[in-house]
């Protein structure tokens, strides 16, 4: 594709039949990442001029049959029906991009991976025998090939626009893989753990939020998942030195990206052996 997003609406956009078809799909999630698309505001008009929004229940009732040049997928796989459906979507999609922590790491619902789902069902539901669910919540990439993963809980709208622009221009998205600490340095923030002793996952978390929480004196919660060289052993040691109990360290790793391999391994190591 050679079309490009731009700052202002053009007078004569290409007809829908000439634009690549975009589909947005939902699995187990809160819809927050889909809402990030709608929150693109001014940019949304330019996006709509360069793609044909063929399937996006959050925004339109229109349903255009595939195949689709680009599919954005939100949510994790939690039921047998989800498994079948994601394979169908993959077969219809030229490029498949997963958006958000649920789709890329299993989401907050991946906490089930560390517990007894049958026990949960018996406590929460009056007739658990009617439920059809999996024991685990897994990312889309555990089931089908994914062309690109966009992190975040929710995704950052600027990064989302960058991914769409990259697709339309046939290039690789320019998304940082370094840690939130770099964003803090660029903004001139004081290091929260050093300045106030506040636990912070910034050193092991991928940039993307603009260091939102540390900019307000709060520790990073790891919304964007592990960065490309996350040293969780070192962070665990630091959290211990800051006075956190093992149970609390396990909890900070098991939030939005509990199922991300690096965070899962770190929490399991603390839970089974204690902080080193």
Give an overview in words.
The protein is α/β, with parallel strands linked by helices. The protein folds into two domains: 16-168, 3-Layer(aba) Sandwich (Rossmann fold), CATH 3.40.50; 180-273, no CATH class. Helix content is 37%, strand content 10%. It contains twelve helices and five strands. The protein has helices spanning 32-38, 42-50, 80-92, 101-105, 117-124, 157-168, 180-187, 192-196, 212-215, 232-241, 246-253, 261-273; strands at 21-26, 52-55, 68-74, 93-99, 148-150. It has a five-stranded parallel beta sheet with strand order 2-1-3-4-5. Helix 3 links the parallel strand 3 and strand 4 (93-99). Mean pLDDT is 90; it is low at 1-11.
SSE layout:
Layout: E1 21-26, H1 32-38, H2 42-50, E2 52-55, E3 68-74, H3 80-92, E4 93-99, H4 101-105, H5 117-124, E5 148-150, H6 157-168, H7 180-187, H8 192-196, H9 212-215, H10 232-241, H11 246-253, H12 261-273
Parallel strand pairs: 1-2, 1-3, 3-4, 4-5
């Amino acid at each position: 594709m050679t079309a490009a997003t731009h700052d202002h609406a053009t007078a004569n956009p290409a007809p829908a039949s000439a634009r690549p078809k975009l589909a947005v799909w939902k699995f187990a999630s809160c819809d927050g990442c889909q809402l990030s698309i709608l929150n693109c505001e001014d940019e949304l008009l330019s996006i709509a001029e360069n793609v044909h929004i063929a399937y996006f229940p959050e925004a339109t009732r229109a349903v255009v049959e595939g195949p689709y040049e680009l599919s954005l997928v939100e949510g994790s796989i939690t039921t047998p029906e989800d498994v079948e459906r994601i394979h169908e979507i993959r077969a219809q999609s030229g490029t498949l991009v997963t958006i958000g922590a649920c789709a890329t790491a299993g989401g907050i619902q991946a906490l089930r991976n560390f517990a007894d789902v049958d026990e949960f069902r018996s406590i929460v539901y009056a007739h658990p025998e009617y439920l059809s669910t999996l024991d685990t919540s897994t990312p889309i990439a555990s089931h089908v090939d994914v062309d690109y993963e966009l992190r975040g809980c929710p995704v950052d709208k600027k990064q989302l626009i960058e991914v769409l622009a990259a697709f339309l221009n046939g290039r690789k998205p320019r998304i940082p893989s370094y840690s939130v600490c770099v964003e803090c340095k660029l903004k001139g923030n004081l290091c929260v753990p050093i300045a106030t002793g506040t636990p912070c996952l910034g050193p092991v978390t991928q940039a993307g939020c603009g260091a939102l929480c540390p900019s307000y004196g709060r520790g990073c919660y790891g919304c964007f998942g592990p960065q490309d060289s996350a040293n969780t052993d070192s962070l665990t040691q630091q959290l211990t030195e800051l006075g956190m109990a093992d149970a609390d360290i396990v909890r900070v790793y098991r939030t939005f990206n509990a199922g991300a391999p690096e965070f899962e391994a770190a929490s399991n190591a603390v839970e089974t052996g204690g902080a080193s």
